[in-house]
Structures are given as C-alpha cells and as structure tokens.
Give the backbone structure.
Amino acid sequence: MWWTANGERVLEGAEARVFAEALLALVDEAYVGHFDDYDLGVNAFDKLTYGQKVSVLSIVGNGLLRRDVPRVDLTADLEGAIAAVFEHLKNMITVEIDMPELGTNWRELVVAARKEAEGEEIPPPTCNDLEEWEIEVESLADDILWDADYDDADLYLDQPPEKAEWLKSMTRIPDNYYLAIADDLNEEEITERLTDVRKLCRAIVEAS
C-alpha cells in the first residue's frame, strides 16, 4: 500500500500496467549500465548510489503494486524514485516518437491509464507532440505524488534550524522526510532486489 495524493491505495488496472512497464524498463537500465551516465533530472534520485537507487525502486514498486505490503513513511528518496519512473516513461515516449518503427506502445499505455482516470482531451496514441505527452504523464504522476517536495531539500536543509522548522510546519513535511537515508545495497542484495522487482512487474504486465 502507498499513501498517495488520492489516499492510501495500490495501483490497479491500466494505471498499474503503465507504472509496472515503466519501472520494468528502468530496472532493465540498471541491469545494462547500473544507471551510469543516466540522470533523470530528479536530484533526489540522481544523487543516490546505485545500491540506493535499486533499494528505493524496490520499495516503491512493492508499495504501489502489492496490497500485502505495509505502508511506509514517505521520504524524499522514495518520492524521488516514483518521479524517476515517470521521467523514464517520458524518455521512452520520446524515443518512440523519434523512431516511428517502434510503434505507439508507450503512448497506448498512457492513453489507457488516463482514460481509466477519466482524463480529458487525451491525445490519440499517434500524436507526436511530446509536450502533450509530458502533460499526460505528469497527470499520472500527480495521482500518486503529493507535490515535488522531494527535490526541495536545499530549501529546507540550508536554512537556519528555526526557519527550516517553520517552513516544514507550513508545508506539513515530516521531520525525517529529507533526513531519511536509503539503504545502500551490496551486490548480492542488488541482484536479489532487481530480480524480485522484475518478477513483480512482469506479473502485473502479463495479468493485464
């Protein structure tokens, strides 16, 4: 379970399918190149070590796609990992638009999820306007993420303690939101987590 912008829930249907596909593709990036030279523009995620990235992706994957997982406290690292999955989805759509021979699979997944969420003015899968797809993907992310606090650590941590506390109280950010440190997995743990996440995502995809 996960505490999302729409309450405590797990992803289902087309929403689960597109997230699982994007997470699976991102995990495959981990297998191929350990995320070397692959920044996603989400500092909360990009700054992590390889072992930490795998750790947070595993946590958010299980939390968002499995009902039997207890809800965890939200942290900047965890929400940054969710944002990273959606940024990777945008990248996959960019590649798809640039290479028409790849078809429209990623855009079809987004369309299905947005229709399920009763979105309005959803572009057809054949639309090649990247800005339109960025809007649609951000709408999907907004159904999970509360906001973009995960990338505002400097705004709070660089302030005097009194001002930082005041800012957090105004925005209702938990004390450990920026201070929690993701586990830095060793090689054996990384392999195990990657295998488990891939298995979970494939199960969601194949069941859809």
Summary: The mean pLDDT is 90. The chain has one domain: 2-146+183-207. The first helix runs from residue 13 to 33.
